[in-house]
Every structure is written in structure tokens, then in C-alpha cells.
Amino acid sequence: MQHEFILDARGLTRTYASGDVQVQALRGVDLALEPGSFTAIMGPSGCGKSTLLHLLGGLDRPTGGEIHLTGRRVDGLSEAKWSVLRRREIGFVFQFFNLIGNLTAADNVELPALLVGTSHGEARRRCQGLLDELGIGDKAGTIPARLSGGQQQRVALARALVNRPTLLLADEPTGNLDSESARDVLALLQRLHEGGQTILLVTHDARVASNADRVITMRDGLIIDDTRLSESGDSSELLSRLIRLEV
Amino acid sequence: MRNTLLALLAEGTAHGYELKQAIEQTFGDAWPPLNIGQIYTTLGRLERDGFVSSAHVAQAGRPDKRVYELTEAGREEVRDWLEEPVTGPRLKDEFFTKLVLARLPGVASLNGGTDARALIARQRRDYLQSMRDLNGLLLRQQRNGGDQTTAALLIEGAILHLEADLKWLDVCEQRLT
Question: Is the dihedral of CA A191, A226, A24, A9 positive or negative?
Fold first, then answer.
């Protein structure tokens, strides 16, 4: 069944107790993601963007509000049901890769596939396909410590995609990469998006956010702006409009 | 313009049209459209000030052309210009004027009392779109290969300026809203 929204969150709040003080990390956020959309949430640290991503991915539970994933309400699910849902429907990429250090790149990628009951042969086939597609096909047998940051993030991306998730969530995926690796990872996200993958990315960096088709700005636990960016036009027109020297 | 012409003449003698071509080749699309008249006017002033000298060169079947050459004073001028840091910061920002004036009650009443937050949000959208456009330009430059160093550096510079502009919008928002 085709749903209008891959993800539909309404009135999300999250309050933490910090000593005697209640901290409102999210103060009422509505967010709906269309299938195949590439959205960035941008804001300074502490604005609530990571909290929001964690709620949407079931890594944390909201204090109030609803979350619907492909039409199904999921915010009240038990931890056991969430963990199944996370494996099947949601791919995660983090700033610090979070790979298992004593497993090879291929084993890291195959693990989530095996956990949902995919056969070894199929898991291996999908894993190698993804590693090839991400340009690290020759690193399948290497452990993470022997890979560069950019390569580790590609392995993490392959792991996030191995179960063909409905939604890919990325939390500062380039935050720990040099500028060239960051550019490569962003180009890969762009390609996944062109292939129809729905992506939600969280970043403090406007340059990273501007890769998405839609940029949502957050401050103090609230969405303060939501804008769609359009495709760029003709190169020479852009050059002359955007970077003409003052002489 | 003045210093650019002087610097290009350090590469050798040239007539006005050759200087126009040299600027276009060196800076590409980043340089605003060049008017040959502006080049001749500038060369005239440089000659008056003793930084360049010119000579008529006869051409078979065509009018004489005037060829320009750097004088010793001109060479000195280029050296001084290169060695002198460009003083900054250069903040030329119409948005700032807008933001300040929009806070005056009479101005605010003209547009239904739009608050600073709305002005800032609209400006942020525009900057984000520019950021996307510049990123796209840079990507296309890299895909096309070839020697695009000058253009790529300019785009990189423009992106960094935009990042600063966006941060500055955040500061304005914190202080004014």
C-alpha cells in the first residue's frame, strides 16, 4: 500500500528531568516526510534536532505526541516491537560510525540482515552489492580500525541499507570526516535519494543541509522554519549572479 | 580595474583589447562584463599618472594601435599593491540596513508589522538556496575536470561567506527577537 507519508509525527514533546529541573528538549514538533524525500533538520547543538531523530527512530520515547510510520502508529510500541521495526524499516547512520570493531566490514553489514532471518547467501550477496556500490568492494574482509573515517562511514551506510529500510536516518553523518570524505558521503546520499530512498538528515552545518531538497530549521525544541530548495539552474548564470567580483 | 591592468602589464606590453582578453581568460565568468571604453579610460589615467607609457604601432592596412608598457613607477606600484594586505572586514550587506530600518514603527506599519523573525527566516531561505546553488556549481566544476582552480576557489570563498552570513543571521535572531 502506498502511503501519503513515510513518516508523520504530530505534536511531539520530550521532557527530561535534570536534577529538580524539567528540561523541554522538544516542545511540540509536527513533521511529515513524503516518500522519496530528502530532508535536512538544521540547528545548533541543543536545539532538539538529535532528540527528534532519536524519537523518530525509536531510540527514545516521546513524552507526548504521535508517530506514524507508513500509516501505522508506532509511538506506543514496546521496546521489543520497536527493535524489530528498527531493524526492518529504519536505517541509522551516526557521526561516530558505531561499527563493531572485531567484525570485518562485510560481517558488520550482514549482521542486521541475518538478524531479520535473511539467508547467509542472500545477506552476503546484498552486502557485496552495497559495498561495491559505495566504492569499497575491496574492503569487505577488513576490520573497521584499518579503514579511514570515510570508508568506515560507507560501511555504516551499507549496514544501514542492507535491510532496504523505508527510512534512512543520518545524525551528523559527515561530522567526523575530512572535507573530501564528507563530500563523498554526501554524494552517496544524493545518489541514494535519486534511487528513491527517503532520507532524514540532522546537521548543524548549513552546507551539509543544503544538499537536501527540504531544510527544516530548529531552535529551542521547536521548528522555526521549513523550506524547500529548488534545483540549481544554468552554471554561468549562477556564477555571474552569486560570485561576481566587486571591481 | 586599475591594479589589475597594471599587474597584467607586468606580463608584457599589450594594447587595450589584449588586456580585455587577458582579464577574461584569467577570471572567467567571475569578472563583471567588461567595457573596452572603461579599459581605455583607466589606461589614460595610468599614463597621466606616469605608471604606464604608450606608443603608436603602425599596422598594415589597419589603423595604428596604441601599445602600453609599465614604467618603473608602474612596476613599483604593482609591487606595493601586492605587498599591502587588503584591509577588512568588508561588510556590504543590504539585509542589515533592511533589518535595522524594519524596526522603525513607520516602516514596520508599511508591511503589516512584519517582525524581525520573519525577515530573518526569509533571508535564511535565500541563503540556503544560494548555498545549494554554489555546492552544485562546485560539483559540476569537479565533474567537468580541467583546470578550474580560479573558479573553484571563488566558489569556495563564496560558500564560506554564506556560512558566515547564516551564522550572523542566527546572532541577529538571538539579539533582536
Answer: negative
ipTM: 0.84
Q: Which residues pair with A68 in a beta bridge?
A: A8, A73
Dihedral class, residue A201 (left if φ above 0, else alpha if ψ from -120 to 50, else beta): beta
What pTM did the predictor assign? 0.83
Chain A residues close to B151, C-beta within 8 Å: 239
Answer whether B137 sits within 8 Å of A238, measured CB to CB. yes
CA torsion sign for A53, A56, A58, A63 is positive
Determine the Cα–Cα distance for residues A76 and A101; give it in Å rounded to an integer: 33
Contact criterion met (CB below 8 Å) for A238 and A232: yes
Q: What is the mean pLDDT of chain A?
A: 92
Q: Where are the domains of chain A?
A: 7-230
Candidates B131, B143, B173: best to mutate against A (most CBs of A within 10 A) is B131
CATH class in words for A7-230: alpha beta
